[in-house]
Amino acid sequence: MTDSYSQPSREWWAQRWIDVLESFGWIRRLARARTYAREGNVLSLEFEGAKVTAAVQGTAPEPYQVSLSLDPFSDEQWSYVVESMAERAIFSAKLLAGEMPQNIEDVFTANGLSLFPFNKFDIHSRCSCPDPANPCKHIGAVYYLLGDRFSEDPFVLFQLRGRTKEQIIADLRQIRGAGDAISAERNSDGTAAPSSDQNVSVSKTPRPTPLNCDRFWEYQEQLEPSLIVITPPPTSETILDVLGSIPLKADAAETQAVMEYFKAVYQVASMKAVQTAMSTES
Amino acid sequence: MAVLHGSWLQGQDKGSPRRGSLFLWGETWRRLEDSVQPEPNTVLSHPFEMGQKDLLEFLKPLHADKRLNLPIFDKLVEDVPKRGRKSAAEPIGEWQTQVIALPTHNFVPLLSASELASADITLHPWRVKGLCLTPIEAFQFLNSLPLGLPSGEDTFLGDELRYWSHIARWALDLLARSKFLPGLMIEDDRAIARWEVLLDSSTDQARLRQFVRQMPSVCRTYQPEREDLSIQLPLEPKSLLLDFLNHMIDEQIRGTATASPLPTGIGSIKSWLQGLRGPIPDVDRSAVDSLAPVLAIWKAPIADYQTDQFRVCFALVPPAPGQRDWILEYYLQAVDDADLIIRAPVIWQNPVERFIYAGRVIEHPQETLLMGLGLASRLYPLIESSLEDVRPQRCLLEPTQAYDFIMNVAWRLQDSGLGVILPPSLAERGGWANRLGLKIRASTSTRRKQDRLGLQSLLNFEWELSIGGHSLSKAQFDRLVAQNMPLVEINGEWVELRSQDIRAAQSFFAARKDQTTLSLEDALRISTGDTQTMEKLPVVSFEASGGLQELVTALTGNQTLAEIETPKEFRGELRAYQSRGVAWLAFLEKWGLGACLADDMGLGKTIQFIAFLLHLKQQNLLERPVLLVCPTSVLGNWEREVKKFAPTLSAIVHHGDKRLQGQAFAKAAQQHALIITSYALLNRDLKSLTTVAWQGVVLDEAQNIKNPEAKQSQAVRQLEADFRIALTGTPVENRLSELWSILDFLNPGYLGPRNFFQRRFAIPIERYGDSTSLQTLRSLVQPFILRRLKSDRTIIQDLPEKQEMTVFCGLSAEQAALYQAIVDRSLEEIESAQGIQRKGIILALLTKLKQVCNHPVLVNAEGNASTRPFRSQSAKLQRLDEMLDEAVAEGDRAIVFTQFAEWGKLLKSHLEGQLEREVLFLYGGTSKKQREAMIDRFQHDPQGPRIFLLSLKAGGVGLNLTRANHVFHFDRWWNPAVENQASDRVFRIGQTRNVQIHKFVCTGTLEERIHEMIESKKALAEQVVGTGENWLTELNTDQLRNLLLLDRSAVIEE
Fold first, then answer.
1. DSSP code per residue over B552-582
2. For the purposes of burial, counting CB atoms within 10 Å of the CB of A39, is it exposed (0-12), middle (13-18) or buried (19 or more)?
C-alpha cells in the first residue's frame, strides 16, 4: 500500500505547505490524517472568502465540521505584495500560465510577510470532534487535502491570505497601468496609436455561417501539399512534455507511471497513423 | 452513372448518446414519369435516390476493384422488410433513413451535378436511404478514397465526400504529430473519457479556418429525424468539423491504446485510463469527480487556444549596425491575420480589460501577453530573464542563439500556437532565393550553323557565386567563411550560410568549375523551375541571352511565335491557329526538340503536319525521308490528305503483303519524302525500318504507344531520327503514364526513367492530387506540348459552327474477300436479269455491299470463318473506336447513325465493351416510352451516356439531341438531304458548341466512288439523287461494274 502523502510528489509550493505542517511534530496523528485524506473521509471542502470549511467523516455517524484559516493580509500589506509582484512580469506570466513562480516567496519576505504559515499559531483551526487536541486528525486531513488543491491551482494559496486570483490579476493590471501613465509620455517611438473608436461592433456570439446556394455541393480544392506526405513529428516531444505531469494526488512513482503510459499511447498512435498513411500510398 | 454522396452526422452527446457516424447514399438520374406531388407534413423520398439494391450494385465493383474500401461491405444485405416484423423497433443494421434539405426546383430536387443558376430554387427536405458507418469504418473508408481531383466528369464520388476524405487525411496527420489530449467530460450524472483533438499550432489553426470556409453547404443541411417539412438552421461548419475530428481521433487512439499495458496500482484514475481505451468511454462518475479540475489545471496553459483572437508573437530582428546581438521583440498578433501585430509597449500603455485596436477587440491584452510569455518561457527558457522586467518588451540573443532560434525554437513555438516572425531573408528556409548559390548566364555556342542542336547540346555559360541576391567574389566568399557564423550580413541583409553549401562551393572552386558543363536540357530544366542545383549548389538566378533567350522565352510560353507564311506548295488555306501550329513545329525542329501537337479532334493536326513538311521542303531542309506511323485504319486517310494538300510531296504507304523489305525498302524510301506505315508493322518490319536514317519520325494517334512495355513502343524508340513529332487528340497531360511514354519517345530521358517518374510525379499527383508536383510537371512538359481546345474561342475564332469531314477508311482482308465475291456473283446475275427484277437485284446488292463495308458479319453471320477479333475485321469499326475514344476523352458527346438496326445492336454491345461505358441505341423497335426516356436521359442526366446510336430511319427526324457535338455517319445514305436532316438533330437551337460531322467512307469501294460523284457535282447530284438510291438502278452494267469494282490497294493486310 503506497501512501501518497508520505513522499514528495507535489508541486514545490504544495510540498512547502505540507512541510510546514509536518515540522510541527504530531507524527502519529498526522499519519492517521493522511489516511483520512487518502481514503476520502473529507466529504466536502469549501471556501468562504479566506476561510475553509470542510466536512470530515470520523468515527461518529455524523461528519465533523472543520474550519481552517490563516491570518489574512491587510489591504495595505497586499498592496505592497502586489506592487513587488508587478515589478517583475515573470510573476504574472507564470501565474497566468498556471505555474507558481519559484521565487514567489521573495515577494512576501521582502515585505516582511510570509505566504506560508510560519508556526502553528498562524493556522486557525476548529473541529467539532470531541478530541481536544489541535490539530486533530480531521483538521490534519483537511490540511493535506488543501495541499492537493494548491498543486492544482496555486492561486488557492493566495486565497487563504485573502485575495482571489481575479483580484490579484486586476490589481497587477492597475499597477502596470499607473506606472505607464508616466512612461507613456516618453514613449514616442511611432508605435501605432490605439484606436479610441468605441463604436466597433462587438458581438460575443459569432454570426451564423450562411449557406452557399450557388455552390451547394461543390468542393474543388486540391489536398494541401503539406498533408500529402505524412511524416512522424521531428522530435519525440509532444504536448505531454509541454504540459508536464498531470498534478495527480498520487505519489511520484505512480504519476510517472501514468505519464509513461500516456507517452507509450502517443507513440503507438503516431506510429500507427504514419503506417496507415504509407500503406495508402502504394 | 451514379454519384456516391455522404456526410458526417454529428454525435449527440446529450440525452441519448448517439455516436457520430458517416452517412452514405447514392444519387442517380432517372426519368420522372409523373411530377412529384407534394403532400402536407410528409417528407417524400428523394426521386433520384439510388435505393438499397442499386446502391449495393453500384458499390460492389468499386469495392471489388479496391477503388474504395467499405469495411462493412461483406455483411451488407438489402434490408427487406420482413412480413410481421415490428418495423421500426428492430434494428436495421447499417441501413438508415436520413432527411436532407436540398436545392429544389418545382418540387424536384436538383441533381448534384446540375447548374444552380436558376432563380427559383428553394431548400426542401428529402428522405434518402443509405448506409451508416461507425467512426472506425468511416476512417478506413475515407482514407481509401483517391485524394486527387477526379479527371473528367466521370467520377463516382460526390465533392463533399472528397471534402471529408481530405479532413480524414488531416486527422491522420494530427495523429502522426501527436496533436491530441486525453479528456474527461462530466455531464449531469455521466462521465465520459475521450481523446480530444489539439489544434493549438498555427498550421492547424489556419487549416481549421480554411476547412471551415471550404465545407460544402450540403454537409450542413442533414436534418434530424422528424416528420414535418420544417428545416433546421444549417449546422455550423466548425462544430461539425471538430466533432468529426474528435470522433476520428478518439476512436483511433482507443484502438491503439490497448497495445500499451495499463500501469498498475493507480487508484482512482484507473477508471479514467480504462475509459480512454477500448470500446466503452463511460467511467464511474464518483471515481473521477475530483479529476476534472485537476485536468483543467493541467491544461490551463493551452486552454484558451480555441477562443483567443490574439496570440503572443515573437519577431526576430537582426542586430543594429555595429551591434552583435539579435533582438527578439514581443508582440500580440491576430490569429487570423498575421499582418496585424501590436508591439508590446502599446499593450503596456493600455491597462484595460478590452483594448480596441485597428477595429478589433482584444480581451485582456496584458494578460494575453503575459500568459503567452509564461507559456513560451516553458518552451524557451532563454526569455525568462527578460521577464524580470516590469514591462518586458524584448530580449537579446547572441548570434548563435539567434541561429538556434531559427533552426529549433521557431517551429516549436509555432507548434504550440505562438506566432513567430523572422526577417524575410531568413524566413523561407525551403526556398533557394537567399541561399548561397550560383548565378548563371548562358547562351548558345557560336558554332557552325549546320550543327544540329538537341537537348544534349552544350551551352556557353558563365557563373558567379551569389548569396541573398548579391554576387560574391572568391575573396568575399573566403571572408564570409572565415567569420565562421551561420548567419551573415551581405549588403545589409542577413542570410543563412549553410555548411553544406559552403562545402559544395569550396569543392566547386577547387576542382570542378572547369569541368562543369551546361546542356540545353539543363537550361530548360532550370528555367522551368524543375532542377535547381548544379554540382550541389542551388542555382539562384538564370539568365539566357541570344538565341537561347529566344528559345527559353518561346518555350516557357512568355512569347508567341511569329506565324509563318503558308508554304507555296500547300493546296489549301491554314487558319491562323494552324499557321501558328506549323511555326511551333518548325521552331522545335530547328532546336532538335521533339514536339507533341495535341490539338482537339477536328482542329486539323494532319494538315498542320503536312504544311510543316512543305515548309521544310521550301527551305531546302527536307533532305531525307520522314517516317509517319499511324493506326492501320487511317493509312488511306493519310495518303489522301497528303495527295490533296501537298501533291508535290511524294509519299508512299508501306503496307500490305507486297511491301518492300531490306535493301529494296531502303532504296525506295530514299526516293520519297514521306513513308507512311502502321503501328502493327513497326515491330514486324523493324529491321528494314532501321536501315534508313530518317530525318524525322512522326507518330499519329500517339496514344498508341501509351504502354511503354508494348512492342511498338519499344520498336519506335529504336528508330534514328533528327526530329520527332507526336500527334494526338487525347488530353495527354491528364494521363500520366501516356504522357511519360510519349515524352520519352520525343525527348528521351527528359522526364527520367519510368519508375522515377512514377515516384516523383504519377503517384503524388494521381493518388494525392499534389498540386505542387503537378505544377512542376506541367511547366516541365509545357514547352513540348501544344494543345488547343476547340472550345477556346479566344484562340480559335475562325472555326465554323458546323464542320463536315469525310473519314476515309480501308477494308480488312475479310471485308475485301467478301466484297469481291459478292460483286462477282451479283454482276453475273444482273447481266442476265431485266426490268424490275434487275432493279431488285441491284438494290439488294447495294445494301449487301454497304453491310460488308460496315462489317463482314452482317452478310456472313454463320459462315464467318475469320478467327480474328471482331473489331479487326472492319477497318471502319476500328476508326470509329478510335475517334469515339478521343471524343469522349475530350469530354464530348456523340451520336452515331447507321441504317441497319441489326448493325446498331452489334455496335452497341461492341462499343460498350470497347469503351467501357454505356451506349444508348434507338431504332424502329424501340417503344415510344423507351425512346422518350433515352432522349431525356441523354439530354439531361449529368452522368448520362455520352454515345447515342440511332438508326437513320427511327432517329433521323424530329429529335433534339443538342447535347452532342459530334455526329458520325457510319454508313451512308446516298442522299445528302437525308444525311443533313439527320445531322441537324444536333445542330439546332440550344447547341452552344461547334459541331463536327464525320462521314465515314470505305476507300476503294462503291462508297468512295459515290462519295466522289456527290462531292464533285453536288448541285447535280442533289437533282439526280434527290429521290433516294433509285438512280443507281438505272446505270448500265458496265457503269455499275466501274462503280462497284474493288480497288485492291485499299485493302489493309497485316
1. HHHHTTSSPPPPPPPPTT--S---HHHHHHH
2. exposed
Three-class secondary structure of residue A153 per DSSP: coil
Domain that holds residue B718: 624-786
Report strand pairing: B190-197 vs B811-812: unpaired
Residue identified by cell 494517334 is B701
Q: Please classify residue B106 by burial: count the beta carbons closer than 10 Å to its beta carbon, then call 0-12 exposed, 13-18 middle and 19+ buried.
A: exposed
**Contact (Cβ atoms closer than 8 angstroms) between residue B104 and residue B229:** no
Contact B5, B24 (CB under 8 A): yes
| DSSP state, residue B662 | H
- DSSP designation for B12: B
| Contact of B597 with B742, CB cutoff 8 Å | no
C-alpha cell at B754: 519510368
| Residue where the block lists cell 490563516 | A70
Could you tell me if B166 and B244 are in contact, meaning their C-beta atoms sit under 8 angstroms apart? no
In a domain? residue B604:
no
In angstroms and rounded to an integer, the radius of gyration of the C-alpha atoms of chain A is 26
Which residue on chain B is closest to A210 by alpha carbon? Answer: B234
Contact call for B771 and A213, based on CB within 8 A: no
Peptide bond into B869 cis (omega under 30): no
Structural domain count of chain B: 5
- The amino acid that residue B606 corresponds to is T
Per the CB < 8 A criterion, the answer to whether A246 and B299 are in contact is no
Residue with cell 494532319: B606
Regarding an ipTM greater than 0.90, the answer is no
**CA-based nearest residue in chain B for residue A232:** B176
CB atoms under 10 Å from CB of B336, counted, come to 12
The contacts of residue A57 (CB under 8 Å, 6+ apart) are: A41, A42, A43, A63, A64
What amino acid is encoded at B166 in this protein? Answer: H
Q: Does any domain span residue B36?
A: yes
Give CA–CA dist A265/A272, Å, rounded: 11
Are B147 and A231 a contacting pair at CB < 8 A?
A: no
* CB-based contact B692:B625 (threshold 8 Å): yes
pLDDT at B686: 93
Domain span holding position A261? 225-279
A135 cis-preceded (ω within 30 degrees of 0): yes
Q: Report how far Cα B950 is from the mean position of its chain's Cα atoms.
A: 32
Q: Are the Cβ atoms of B411 and A234 closer than 8 angstroms?
A: yes
In whole angstroms, what is the distance from residue B1005 CA to residue B1009 CA? 7
C-alpha distance from residue B146 to each of A98, A223, B424 (Å): 45, 11, 37
Question: Using alpha carbons only, how large is chain B's radius of gyration in Å?
Answer: 36
| Residue in B218, B356, B375 closest to A217 by CB | B218
Helix axes B835-854, B813-831, angle to 10 degrees: 180
Looking at the structure, tell me whether residues B727 and B809 fall in a common domain: no
Q: For all residues of chain B together, what is the average pLDDT?
A: 84
Cβ contact B391–A89 (<8 Å): yes
Residue ranges, chain B, pLDDT below 50:
14-16, 84-92, 448
Which among B177, B236, B264 has the least Cβ separation from residue A233?
Answer: B177
Considering the domain architecture, whether residues A42 and A150 belong to the same structural domain is answered as yes
**Long-range pairs for B531-534: beta carbons < 8 A, 24 or more residues apart:** B532/B432, B534/B438, B534/B440
For residues B182 and B85, membership in a common domain is answered with yes
Q: List, run by run, the mean pLDDT of 10-residue segments along chain A (282 residues).
A: 48 78 81 85 84 89 90 89 88 81 83 81 86 85 84 79 84 71 38 43 63 84 83 82 81 84 94 84 44
B21 and B157 in a common domain: yes
pLDDT tens, residue by residue, B928-977:
888 888 998 898 887 789 999 999 888 777 788 889 999 999 998 777 77
Contacts A106 to B, Cβ<8 Å: none
| CA distance readout (Å), B1038 to B827, B830, B888, B1004, B1043 | 10, 11, 44, 17, 8
